[in-house]
């Protein structure tokens, strides 16, 4: 029986996806054949063999049961399981295990070795199928059973090995990294900042040293973006830079941006201003850095324009800054459709220095926070503000008076519909602060500072990668085990966001009173009072026909997470599943994949992630090399650009027709009816045909002068932008096509 099973395994081994590149990625079929066909001579070698296989596929291994030769303690058979084998049985709840994630899924994947009389270990049983998500290539170094040995045959460069190799030889001849997967790493993530000692850190010429660093980064990473502003005398004054991964991060999480200008600790007291956002784990994600010589409106206008250009012209929904007149004017000019708010973190930090001992009073802090977050009307804000000033005799405090002039930028009454990703929530201050604290000192040159910032970004991305891995391999502990709402949330949200959702859900369960009234038709009105909140009442409207819900607190609009009041209303209507439109994709485990609308329906998708990664690497490198080859001649640039535009249009047609085919396949009866009747062509078909027709037309290309290629128009002060030659700008435009194209 075991021999027949072995033959069946060889015949039906797991095949890789069609089109997989066997020269760059080890397929599951090859790994399976190697496992089955290999013979080892000890228990340790057998364990290592299956661990090696597990690392290539994406799972951890644990040791299972064994049998012995009769009358001896010599092993006859030995089982090894996927680490997710079995289920977590009920156990006494302790402080240690209450929040421990559940890793078991009752996975049946396993291997059984038999030992013959000569001590040879061979596979006699093999179950290859897993019932859970496998680790992606960039996450497999985090697998527990993979940490005790080195992997020899991988189609993807190991991050640690890559960093060591780069540090030793300084080579820049490396494959351009994946722009979207795996989420924790890019080509620059493994760049050891100690390896750049060969960059000359000059004193008086430090700005030129920084530009040399930017050029080196650009040569090694095609999507690296940098910009420099010079004054009328040709002196470099302001700098902005970001890498390619920051661009893809912005595409996913650039709806809310924090712009922080409070850090000046470096050799020249330059403002180091990071652009920071919030990722799906509710952690910091960096979109770029700036070094500014001054804090004038002109400098901020230049910086915001450069940032906007580097992000493909897409403005954030909201931007949070310190209270600064120059920043306000620049933001209004460059981001006219973006809601500009003051960051609570900055306000509370400034309060410490402007209010003295008054700010140490908990009663004052409560009144101050009520003004910022606890008022429902402008009149209530005015009354609360006046009461606070009277109580603590602060009517003549210049800082508070100046702050109140712009109350529409910080009071929640005026920003209920502004998405902030939780940046201005009370919990955010507990998990985030200035990411540059302790990075540099007064003796740090700006080039060294840039290298240290690279290390900061590397750490943040490593943390995200580890969180992604934890979310894919473990399940959060649910406070109510059999709640379908919590089960749905645990499967969708990242662990951190699930805990925030669960807190709202449990808070909603504690409502002291709920009055339900019909507003006519399918519209219901709920008036909800919560425990421990006094007599304050929240109003929730629910349309039972469309399951659309809204609450006066505005939490979903601000943060993209349903509030306790809305969840209570759903509970009263026996809604056991949250409508999908109220599970914001940016907070889910698949936040990055959702950006490209990648489906999860094909289970073989995980099996070929190494091949996909290898494809993206090769495609990026190929396009980058073509851009370099064509940069010198205008005619060559036109040929290259024409080919990109033609390819983009062909892809649009392909996906348009693909979507049409999928739509028709979903409803066979409707399709048959359309065959019998003459129905006017729908907009989708028309759009596809228009794209087909336009793809053959030659695109119009406006030739640029050398002056236009190398610097932008001067601003009002005669300053100009230098540093990025034309082909650097081509990389930025290429990204908009490649980031979509390479996601498939």
Please tell me about this protein's structure.
The chain has 744 residues and is α+β, with helices and mostly antiparallel strands. Among the domains are: 2-155, no CATH class; 484-595, no CATH class. 42% of the residues lie in helices and 14% in strands. The chain is built from 25 helices and 16 strands. Strands 11-10-7-8-9-6-5-16 form an 8-stranded mixed β-sheet, with helices on both faces. Strands 1-2-3-4 form a 4-stranded antiparallel β-sheet. It has a 4-stranded antiparallel β-sheet with strand order 12-13-14-15. A hairpin with a 6-residue loop joins strand 1 (61-68) and strand 2 (75-82). The protein is globular.
Helicity range of the residues?
A: 40-55%
| Content of β-strand | 5-15%
Given the structure, what is the number of helices? 25
Alpha-carbon distance between the two ends: 42 Å
Tell me the overall shape: globular
Low-confidence stretches: 1-26, 149-204, 598-608, 677-720, 723-733, 740-744
Keywords: Metal-binding, Zinc, Zinc-finger
Pfam families: FAR1, MULE, SWIM
Protein name: SWIM-type domain-containing protein
GO molecular function: zinc ion binding
């Amino acid at each position: 029986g075991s021999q027949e099973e072995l033959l069946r395994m060889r015949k039906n081994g797991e095949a890789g996806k069609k089109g997989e590149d066997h020269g760059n990625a080890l397929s599951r079929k090859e790994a399976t054949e190697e496992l089955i066909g290999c013979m080892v001579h000890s228990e340790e070698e057998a364990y290592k063999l299956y661990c090696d296989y597990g690392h290539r596929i994406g799972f951890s291994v644990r040791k299972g049961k064994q049998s012995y030769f009769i009358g001896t303690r010599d092993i006859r058979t030995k089982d090894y399981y996927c680490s997710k084998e079995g289920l977590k049985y009920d156990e006494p709840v302790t402080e240690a295990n209450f929040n421990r994630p559940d890793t078991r899924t009752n996975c049946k994947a396993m291997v059984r070795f038999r030992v013959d009389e000569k001590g040879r270990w061979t596979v006699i049983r093999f179950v290859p199928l897993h019932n859970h998500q496998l680790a992606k290539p960039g996450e497999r170094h985090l697998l527990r059973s993979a940490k005790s040995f080195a992997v020899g045959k991988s189609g993807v460069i190991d991050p640690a090995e890559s960093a060591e190799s780069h540090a030793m030889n300084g080579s820049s001849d490396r494959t351009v990294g994946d722009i979207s997967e795996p989420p924790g790493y890019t080509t620059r993530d493994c760049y050891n900042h100690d390896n750049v000692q060969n960059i000359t850190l000059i004193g008086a010429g430090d700005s030129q040293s920084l530009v040399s660093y930017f050029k080196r980064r650009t040569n090694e990473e095609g999507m690296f973006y940098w910009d420099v502003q010079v004054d009328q005398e040709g002196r470099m004054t302001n700098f902005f830079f970001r890498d390619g991964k920051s661009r893809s991060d912005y595409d996913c999480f650039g709806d809310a941006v924090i712009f922080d200008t409070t850090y000046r600790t470096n050799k020249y007291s330059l403002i180091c201003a990071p652009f920071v956002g919030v990722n799906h784990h509710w952690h910091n994600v960096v979109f770029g850095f700036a070094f500014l010589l001054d804090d004038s409106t002109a400098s901020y206008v230049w910086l915001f324009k450069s940032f906007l250009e580097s992000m493909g012209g897409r403005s954030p929904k909201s931007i949070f800054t310190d209270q600064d007149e120059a920043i306000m004017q620049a933001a209004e000019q460059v981001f006219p459709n973006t809601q500009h708010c003051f960051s609570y973190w900055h306000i509370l930090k400034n309060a410490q220095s402007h209010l003295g001992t008054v700010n140490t009073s908990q009663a004052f802090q409560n009144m101050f926070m009520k003004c910022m977050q606890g008022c429902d009307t402008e009149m209530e804000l005015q009354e609360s503000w006046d009461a606070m000033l009277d109580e603590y005799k602060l009517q003549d405090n210049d800082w508070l008076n100046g702050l109140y002039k712009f109350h529409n930028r910080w009071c929640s009454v005026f920003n209920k519909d502004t998405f902030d990703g939780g940046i201005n929530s009370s919990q955010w201050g507990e998990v985030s602060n200035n990411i540059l604290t302790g990075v540099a000192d007064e003796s740090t040159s700006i080039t060294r500072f840039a290298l240290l910032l690279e290390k900061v970004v590397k750490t943040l991305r490593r943390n995200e990668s580890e969180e992604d891995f934890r979310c894919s391999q473990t399940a959060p502990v649910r406070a109510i085990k059999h709640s379908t709402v919590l089960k749905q949330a645990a499967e969708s949200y990242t662990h951190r966001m699930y805990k925030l959702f669960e807190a709202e859900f449990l808070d909603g369960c504690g409502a002291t009173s709920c009055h339900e009234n019909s507003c006519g038709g399918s519209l219901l009105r709920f008036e909800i009072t919560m425990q421990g909140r006094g007599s304050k009442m929240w109003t929730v409207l629910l349309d039972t026909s469309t399951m659309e819900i809204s609450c006066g607190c505005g939490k979903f609009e601000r943060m993209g997470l349903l509030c306790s009041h809305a969840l209570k209303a759903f509970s009263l209507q026996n809604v056991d599943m949250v409508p999908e439109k109220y599970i914001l994709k940016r907070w889910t485990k698949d936040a990055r994949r959702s950006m490209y609308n990648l489906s999860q329906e094909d289970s073989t998708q995980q099996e070929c992630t190494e091949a996909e990664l290898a494809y993206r690497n090769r495609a990026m490198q190929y396009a980058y090399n073509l851009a370099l080859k064509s940069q010198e001649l205008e005619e060559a640039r036109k040929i290259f650009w024409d080919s990109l535009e033609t390819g983009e249009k062909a892809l649009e047609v392909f996906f348009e027709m693909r979507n049409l085919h999928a739509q028709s396949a979903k409803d066979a009866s409707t399709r048959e009816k359309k065959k019998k009747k003459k129905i006017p062509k729908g907009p989708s078909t028309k759009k596809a045909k228009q794209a087909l027709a336009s793809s053959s037309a030659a695109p119009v290309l406006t030739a640029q002068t050398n002056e236009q290629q190398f610097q932008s128009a001067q601003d009002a002060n005669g300053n100009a932008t230098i540093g990025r030659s034309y082909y650097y700008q081509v990389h930025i435009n290429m990204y908009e096509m490649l980031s979509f194209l390479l996601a498939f």
